[in-house]
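Lay summary

Proteins are chains of building blocks that fold into shapes. Our project writes down both the chain and a compact code for its shape. Here are two examples, one after the other.
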Amino acid sequence: MFKIYIPLFIIFLTSCTAKIRYIGKSFSPTKSIEVYVTEQSIKRPFEYIGRGYVGGIGGQNNPNKIQQKAEKLGREKGADAVLITDYYILNTEGVHITSTYRTDSIAPRAVTTGNTFVSPTSGSGYNILFLKYNK
């Protein structure tokens, strides 16, 4: 019985980790890679060779894991550097409204109760750009 649960548990754990999907050019793998968090700190001429997209459940919450996976993927794709920036968007014009109503018919009449929650819409994530230095 437990033999079935162990592989399922392992699959569940690995499916919850952050994944980075890559779109761009590929070159021969590199051994080392530099990591930047602002474009202004890059002192050498470069070109963008690819972009990474973060996916997975809960993957957005751990920036250290995101950096490790971006470095590994960058080395595999032949990048010389990776630029990781984060963003946070708060949209105050749009709101998310959740209303819940419940009606109970108790005794001779119906009673209706309700709750309404209002919260601003927001979003956050990472921009991951892979760079190749111009020679």
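And here is the second example, written the same way.
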Amino acid sequence: MHAGCLRFVVMPDHLHGVIVIRHGRSSPDGDPFVQRQFGMALKNSLATVIGAFKSTVTRRLKRMGMTGRVWQRNYYEHIIRNDHHLWAIRRYIITNPACWHDPRKRT
């Protein structure tokens, strides 16, 4: 698996990012979508990448003296299906900090 971050921005109380996950090969039966039991983490999945990120950041913040919760329980995911959609999301991520002062535009 190869994962990379194309674009991100850290906001005062959340972050936005585009993560690309590419699998070098499919499952043994040729199906790139592997079935799993409900509630079980799927190796190299988006949930695993996000979980590892949250865990690493939390450990570092705790070592620096932060107390209390760091993250909300879940995350929002969206599949980007084409270049036009990717550019629109990148533009949103870049311009989002400028909207922070206006509570009606916060996302």
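What can we say about the second shape? The radius of gyration is 17 Å.
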